[in-house]
Design goal:
4 copies of one chain form a homotetramer.
Chain A (H helix, E strand, L loop, with lengths): L4 H24 L19 H20 L10 H4 L24 H18 L6 H30 L27 E4 L2 E5 L22 E5 L2 E4 L5 H9 L11 H10 L7 E4 L2 E6 L2 E4 L11 H10 L7 H10 L28 E7 L25 E4 L16 E3 L8 E2 L3 E3 L4
Parallel strand pairs in A: 8-11
Antiparallel strand pairs in A: 1-4, 2-3, 4-12, 5-6, 6-7, 8-9, 9-10
Chain lengths: 431, 431, 431, 431
């Protein structure tokens, strides 16, 4: 294939990026045993080993199988084992049974990764068609998503062990570093009016830059009423005030489904909080520690976020409001990446990115003009547009380079094991 | 209280309306036995007797208890029994156990209705404050909703009896009346642009005219992309083509949640359809009969509607598109009420009203600026704004005077026992 | 058919008995509304109307269909509706949906009863073969079982209504009648040795006298170790002492399955007990009243009975021990029938019969040499010989003439809605 | 402590036995990875690692903690983690979550085993009191039970992996060794009469010889009716005939609970059977292979065994019949231990031991005079005497030295993952 110079440079960048992202995934598992990597604490949370295998499967299935005439899967039987939910590829192995796969071993899965990476590097050494490169870019974004899921899932797996294993030890001295006090919560007003929502990227984006998922497209017009958005996320201390004010006992604060879910599950606090010696502690990837009041509250469901907002005399933002405000604030594409942390920390406001995903009041639905990609890869996002709520921003566990203002994360409203927090919004009366 | 003449006339109209609506509810139960009125086939479908009692409870609880200084409930213990979900009033009797209330008897519940109606008529004989009148208007709209629910619930109760009881016999000769053939499905284009959505009514509406629920308010601006809307609902014959084309077996047509729901429940056709002697029959309030291909398809879930639309190369409309098109078509407020039927019939297009509720692709969420009413009555609509989809229009079972373009009906996406059908929409490329 | 004089007399007795038993069933429903008769509070507890229909179904299906060459069912579609569990007859209507049959109405079911009774009386007016008479005798025993079930089921249905309907009012003055104090619990020793268990009846018994179910046969030898049996059932007061001693909180007292069942269901006291104003009350067929300490404890599961026995330093008897002791005490066939009561009462010891069914530690299993009857009626008892425990004696709700020492009642160990109580036993050291 | 010479010899024998049994357990895990040892495919089947830890926990908790004044648990937090169900020791870790314990690692658990073995050997080097030695003997019997469970559980874990891992490879040449044809099934008659059942062992047995669990005691008299017992277990070929004769589709063959269980679970064949290329295969610890018709059928539930027996015109034996016949046949204590195999094989009749556990028609209930041991170890057997059926004999996976005629194995009637098969019995008419 004959391609231009700039395109070749783009492909080279992608090739480097490929190596980096794949290495990062492995690096996340460095301190874990093969046993740790097999854990599955609930159907929604996959084993670490499965994440390693599934991300490899993605490149084998959607890139190599298409690019190479002589393609042979590394192991035919693994095609179903590590398929997540692409029914176009065949019937996937049952999600709830991913933790029962002691074979292939962690070592075999790692070997498969290396083998696949070699094939991919070879592929990227010769010019490839743009749509294949776009699939590779998609695969890397997919892998970054799983980097975060790997951590959120592992946190839940470890939480289910009464020994409460520590993922990585806190840095020396950190615990004693003083945390700046939380500034008072303020609301910044936005005038609203005719605005744009979404991403203009064509196809899967221009490979290396400007990537967006299909669900962020197309860029389209909307009309915004005037609104105000909080200048930072809600803190643990503020959430504790809600708890102490009977927040979990006052039905009037809750959506009907939320009240039911909360009563059934017996929620009394965010996930990973527990009482010890009369005070609230929390489990983090660095182990157990007292809840730090200044930090953004995390691991709350949409239902809890919504109830908190009602209690606070506010509401959750729509995803359009959030995106508009993030772009206006100039942090639409985070200029300086947040340092990644094992738990959300207080850093400079407005913390649109890098601390906690922020629940919106928007259901996860298609944008006007939304189109899925052809083929099985088209199952990526579209078929989940039912029963889920949009979260915006990014979290302490989101990989560098994976955040943008138009990004639409989504989970069921009762999910709590993601790094999900709360940003408030308010109506502004129309003058 | 001293009120003006026009206001007095309005109250008089309301008083007459009150008598009419209450009488209509009773009339619906005329042919039923006390045993029929006790049936509860699933938690979501209440007994007929419970509907009779709950609508009475509404007036007692929200109107009489507020209006009369000497108020005493008719029976203290019934306050919890016939409370649906207003936690502000106290803990309601369990919804799934409504069918276990042989006492109070149907006769006692009817007596309570008469007693309450007398008190209400007495109240309406002297001038009342506007906000109380608004609560009464709300109570009547509430009662009309339950008139339709009474029929949809009863249909499900009867369906669970292998004897398949008939609610009312078909009129003589009807079965032989020729049904006009379904015209080809067409799409009418709309230019979109800046538009308005919702209802401007203040409070609960101006009592007798211009009523709107809180969830239809406020009237607000939106931006619509160009779109096209089908000129009539999808017919049984068209839906059968989808079934015959493997619609229920092709995962690629379905939302992920829909596919799971469908597989788990074993859906193969709309609710109330069954096979007899090699052809499809359906159960209606007039009993069993062969499926009539020209009639609008009915008793499909949102998931089925969505899958059908994908199969047909179309999509479901948003609620904004639906409302805009209905208003444009001049049938925003149905000028001539549809004749009510025990099942949807083919009548003059576009059948925005009077045949089947039409699933949209919009989740049931608050409009910008939405406010609930103060007090327990504020639980009416707002707390259900999670996990449900909007239906628009009205059905063959909707009472006269209860349909309008801004009306937002809502049910969980898997619900099938309402008179719910399908209207298709399409994107129109922006010139 | 030519039959002897004595046999004809026996048939005449049966004919009279038939009329009596059938009338008694109807009499039990005298004060109930059609709505009351439709209630079904759980799958295990059938509606009263269903009991009326099913007992009629039994005679139609197993007697009339066999006896009459020109047999036609009263209504073909009712054959499945009122079949309980005889798969040999066809697929029965789902047990959990018996409460959804508003049609046929109570009145229609009563008419069917009368019609069937006429046919049966006609049949019994001419000489019939012994095996048919045995089926009729079986049908009457079956009907008597349902007389008791009708009451236990109704009690549970009414319990689920917060209004707590009263089945029949207590007789004037009863409440003030002094109850004699409970005598101290004593144990009567039995020497054991070679003994007989069961019933010698051939076929279904000699029609009118000496009836026994198949599960009581054959009479067979057993070896009994020496044992001692309590001279009366455990009282409410004694059971309360167990409760106050932490009986429901001490796992060591419970069978493993029992502890799980109890924790899951949250049992704290016998079924139908509740707290009011600081004391224990109970719901009876005569309504609510304080627990009477002298009366036999009732509505406990096998698990609770077993835990109580362990707490009391005793154990439950085996069914062989119970039967042996009952026969020894001379009350094997109750000479004087207990007066029937809406709740167990204290009467003359040893109360083997007429107060509460008594849980044994014997699983419900076939006796050596057990044979089921041929045909569908053979499903009567044998197929339930798994997962259930035997209860012996009879209760306050057992019809007159339906008690005998060899009678084997059986329920799942977690069942509590029968009139089930506790009689203790102890080992006696071998000399 | 001063003890006699013979007692010292007995203790020495126990010390050697201790080393042997503990080594055998480890040997079973030799070919497994740490990942394999973490698998838990259902709540009833524990991870291999958990078995290793729990058997160690038993000695630490019931022996070392009692024997040593300076006792300190190896790790305080493991006391709850590896407690199975002894509520007297404290609240055990949830059974269904045993597979979530990646920590402690397999290596740590092995180290703990070695450490505990050292302490135990030291203890057994000085004279100990008889009751402590009895606890040690109990611990070794307990460990042998877990040796079999380790294999049955592992087989189920591996079955849930579509790759179907092989536990150990079949020996060279085995597959080609001709299997002798199954001789015709015959029944050997027993006269019955007064007999003895159970075991006379005092306490936990005389330490090394004559051990019996509490549930086998006391030895007591029973009366047996004449009966006949099959001279060998039912074969795969015979069971296949039942399947082909519609055994799984004929309700009349099944206990009511069995029919329900079977319909709900969709059983069509024994567990581990599957269809491949038109014939039946089975999964074994040696991998997949065609079903061998001559071998004893295995992995059937009590319900299936019971239905098969009814189909064959026979019944299951009582445990008393089984024990009596096994003793009569001279194989009451297997003289020559069966060679252990990864699956049941055909060897010399009557195969009371060494092939498959044999379901009886006896519920697992206390013998007359049964007493539990004092303290938490008393929870060993007694509290499970509800809802389970007795199996007799031993299987291909039972360790050498762990079989005896009085042994009472027990499982819920629906359990299929044990090596459980069928031996038929028949009534013999009393002459």
């Amino acid at each position: 294939m004959n391609i231009g110079n700039s395109q070749w440079l783009a492909q080279e960048t992608l090739r480097t990026h490929f190596a980096t992202v794949r290495r990062q995934t492995l690096a996340l598992t460095a301190g874990l045993s093969a046993e740790d990597c097999l854990l599955q604490s609930m159907p929604e949370a996959s084993p670490v080993k499965w994440h390693l295998a599934h991300t490899t499967w993605f490149f084998e299935t959607f890139v190599l199988a298409r690019a190479r005439a002589d393609f042979r899967p590394y192991d035919e039987s693994w095609r179903a084992l590590f398929n997540s939910y692409y029914l176009g590829i065949g019937e996937p192995h049952a999600r709830a049974q991913r933790g029962l796969l002691s074979r292939p071993s962690l070592q075999e899965v790692r070997t498969w990764r290396m083998h696949t990476d070699s094939l991919m590097q070879a592929l990227l050494s010769t010019p490839q068609a743009p749509d294949l490169l776009e699939l590779i870019a998609l695969g890397l974004q997919h892998e970054q998503q799983h980097q975060e899921l790997l951590l959120t899932d592992l946190k839940h797996h470890f939480w289910c062990n009464p020994l409460r294993p520590v993922y990585h030890a806190p840095p020396v001295g950190q615990a004693t570093a003083p945390v700046p006090p939380t500034p008072p919560l303020q609301f910044a007003e936005q005038a609203g009016g005719l605005a744009e929502l979404g991403h203009s990227g064509a196809g899967f984006g221009s490979v290396n830059e400007g990537f967006a998922f299909d669900n962020e497209r197309p860029l389209h017009r909307i009309w915004l009423q005037p609104f105000a958005l909080a200048t930072r996320p809600v803190s643990n201390g503020e959430y504790l005030a809600f708890m102490r004010d009977g927040g979990y006992r006052r039905a009037a604060l809750w959506l009907s489904d939320g009240w039911e879910a909360q009563q059934r599950a017996g929620w009394q606090a965010p996930l990973y909080w527990f009482r010890r010696d009369g005070q609230w502690w929390q489990f983090t990837l660095e182990g157990e520690r007292p809840v730090r009041m200044e930090e953004p509250v995390c691991h709350v469901s949409h239902y809890e976020a919504d109830a908190y907002a009602r209690w606070a005399g506010a509401r959750l933002p729509t995803e359009a409001e959030w995106e508009h405000a993030a772009l206006e604030s100039g942090t639409g594409v985070p200029a300086v990446e947040a340092t990644r942390h094992p738990a959300p920390v207080r850093e400079g406001d407005p913390q649109f990115f890098g601390a906690v995903w922020q629940w919106t009041q928007s259901a996860y639905l298609p944008y006007p003009g939304f189109r899925t990609s052809p083929g099985a890869v088209g199952e990526y996002n579209g078929k989940f547009m039912s029963g889920q709520m949009v979260l915006r921003g990014s979290s302490c566990a989101t990989p560098t380079g994976h955040a943008r203002a138009s990004y639409r994360n989504f989970f069921a409203p009762g999910a709590r094991w993601q790094f999900s927090g709360i940003r408030l919004a308010r109506d502004v009366p129309v003058g």
